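Dear all,

This email documents one entry for the complex benchmark we are building for the journal club exercise. For each entry we list the sequence lines for every component of the assembly. Then comes the predicted three-dimensional structure of the complex as a token string, followed by one or two observations. Please use this as the template for your own entries, and keep the labels exactly as they appear.
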Amino acid sequence: NAGVMQNPRHLVRRRGQEARLRCSPMKGHSHVYWYRQLPEEGLKFMVYLQKENIIDESGMPKERFSAEFPKEGPSILRIQQVVRGDSAAYFCASSPYMDSNQPQHFGDGTRLSIL
Amino acid sequence: AQSVTQLDSQVPVFEEAPVELRCNYSSSVSVYLFWYVQYPNQGLQLLLKYLSGSTLVKGINGFEAEFNKSQTSFHLRKPSVHISDTAEYFCAVSDRNQGGKLIFGQGTELSVKP
């Protein structure tokens, strides 16, 4: 399967714990986007990364959230000290170029539940 | 800031009937427009896109959309729906001057009944 791979598919955490969400882009894609989908809402942009660079993090909450896309390995979205309001589906998308006309290919998402 | 409005949160329709899902975006100098479909517990799949040229765009699964610059709309249509079209549909825009990030509408839940 050469598509965008996200893991885990489901993640349960207790309040105060850390959540790590992983995304492997499609083969040949070096641009990764993270989106959050709250219940009954559309997707909201969080962050846009290229290998080893954060290009646009205008949608990231100011605290507790961070993202990286290292030279080797998957992109990681990290949420520290999770709270109930972090419960959502988190989607990763990838594209081959830094061009706004390139369709993004989406993974199946990670559904994060906070107890 | 760019925004997208999908006017209907839910659209129930009978099988083989035509359907239109409405989408309006805020005015911008130049945008690219997309429709995505999301089946339960899955990611988003691209249905079609408008980049430039002909304002009528044809996509997968028999869907098409028409770009109307004067009305800032990009409505999605299908002449005859199937049960398998039941899903959530998202309209999205990408501003040419802001990299590739997508701004999504709230989504329209299409429910096709036999």
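Observations: Residues 32 and 94 of chain A are 4 Å apart (CA to CA). The radius of gyration of chain A is 13 Å.
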